[in-house]
Amino acid sequence: xxxxxxxxxxxxxxxxxxxxxxxQGERGKSELKTPNGSITLNYGRPVLQGRDMxxxxxxxxxxxxxxxxxxxxxxxxxxxxxxxxxxxGTHSLWLKRVAADTFELxxxxxxTGHGMMHDASKDMAGVSLTKSALARxxxxxxxxxxxxxxxxxxxxxxxxxxxxANFQFAK
Length: 171
Known about the structure:
Helix content: 10-25%
Number of strands: 10
Radius of gyration: 19 Å
Strand content: over 45%
Largest sheet: 10 strands, antiparallel
Shape: globular
Structural class: alpha+beta
Number of helices: 2
Order of helices and strands: HEEHEEEEEEEE
């Protein structure tokens, strides 16, 4: 009887651990080396499943830019997106639809938490994203940090769209 109870407890614990791992889903990670350490980007990777999620985002609304936990960008250096400087540290990223075909990458002071909890009072800055069409659609969200001279490009690919913003390592 004792062995049976232990077996039942073990099975329940295994089932709960599996459910927690499955609930979080697949996470993506991108990294870009700087002279002062690495910039890292951690995000959930939702799948479109025949939907066009960017078109469903209404003008003025925010999207968590991923799934489950917030998309978090951690940088050991300040980043300059044009005239907008983002201080070093960990920030959550949000996508805001500004107009029909215009999007903004919003940096928020909350670096952790569930992606459904956007607190606009903690938004630090928004930077414009350039939008272009992908030659081949991306069924699963992909966010990459690509190197460039003295900085890089943050690139978002999902569905038939690519959204991107260039940055420099701030001095």
